[in-house]
Amino acid sequence: MTHSSLPGYFGPLFAVFLFVLGLCVGSFLNVVIARVPLDQSIVRPGSRCPKCGHVLSWYENIPLLSWLALRARCRGCGAPISARYPMVELLTGLLYFACLRRFGWSYELVPALVLVSLLVPLAFIDLDHWILPLSMTVSGMLAGIMLAIPLGTEALRDALIGAAVGFLSFRLMEYVGWKVFQREALGAGDKYLVAMLGAFLSWRALLGILLFASMQGAVVGIVMLLLTGRAGPRAEEAEPETPEGEVPPLTMTWEFTQPGLPFWKRLLLVPVCLLVQPIPDAPLDEEGEEEEWIPERTSIPFGPWLALAGLELLLLGPWLARILPPDIAMMLGAVP
Ligand SMILES: [Zn+2]
To answer: CA 166, CA 195: separation in Å to the nearest integer?
Structure first.
């Protein structure tokens, strides 16, 4: 794989182009982070100030520069604009650049950029709302499998096994945690994120992802607990409720518990339920309704840590393979 088959002076030019593309994608990811968890359209309406509704014109919407030029204030009402907007843009730009450094101008750059563009918003959504939207993780998993096709049958097989093993292993941990400890050890959305990571990075990376995510999450969680009294962020708002009578997405238990369901159908649903049924997030109250889950002081959202571990294995593989003993590097899925 040649890292630059382009004439010398074009290389830096295209690298700058990719960085700027990353900034623009990051600007769009800010919209995704703000709207997807609230089930709002990411296309319409255009960006506006969350305080006063002031519609942003094109020159107020330029990644990084607008935030600097506006001195972090809305032009309509003067409300401060969070530094997180330019931060997400810059982060995405830098990660795009890092992907180029890692893969060069090869086909592998495409799935890498797609994975980055999924992991950045998923991490921030989980930090804000303690959820990982299925619309992003499940379609991300499918994208990971599709993007492996041009890499050949072996890559496709690794992606399929990665998605299946990632999902099933976390599903099993979730099930055991619920049976043994009678409580939720993992967020219900985590297994879909791990399936997505397995699809993009193959099953070989799964053990490394699990290890890196738990170790870093535990260390930072403990430090945060000592410093701020909380291991994770506070839940700012309740999740949007499913309207009455409507089937919540992917909840087989809903159908399973309906009275008057024929016995054979119930029997058929058992294996399906075991696989896809979300484990109740919270104990049920007297009316059998799920109580709203509120993160405890020691709760840590796992999604951001899984995303970070995925990025580390994606981008630092060759470096890890160099510094770690070969056996351990192979076990962690660090490919040279
Ligand atoms: Zn405003």
So the answer is: 5
At residue 110, the pLDDT reads 97
Q: Compute the C-alpha angle 173/264/282, nearest 5°.
A: 35
Identity of the amino acid at 12: P
**pLDDT at residue 311 in the model:** 97
C-alpha separations of 281 from 59, 67, 174, 272, 289 in Å: 44, 39, 11, 19, 11
Q: How far is the CA of 62 from the centre of ligand 1 (A)?
A: 17
Other Cβ atoms less than 10 A from the Cβ of 268: the count is 11
Mean pLDDT, contiguous 10-residue spans, the chain (336 residues): 56 91 95 90 82 84 87 86 92 96 93 98 92 93 97 96 94 78 69 96 94 90 77 60 44 48 63 50 50 69 94 92 88 78
Q: Could you tell me the distance, in angstroms and rounded to a whole number, from the CA of residue 131 to the centre of ligand 1?
A: 27
Please list the alpha-helical segments (H only) found in the chain: 10-35, 65-69, 84-103, 109-129, 134-148, 153-181, 190-201, 206-228, 252-256, 263-276, 303-323, 326-331
Residue of 133, 131, 129, 305 lying closest to 234 (CA atoms): 129
- Ligand 1 centroid distance, CA of 157 (Å): 50
Q: Which of 189, 195, 171 has the alpha carbon at shortest distance from 281?
A: 189
Distances in whole angstroms, Cα of residue 299 to Cα of each of 225, 302, 304, 305, 323: 10, 9, 13, 13, 33
Tokens 């699809």 -> residue: 199
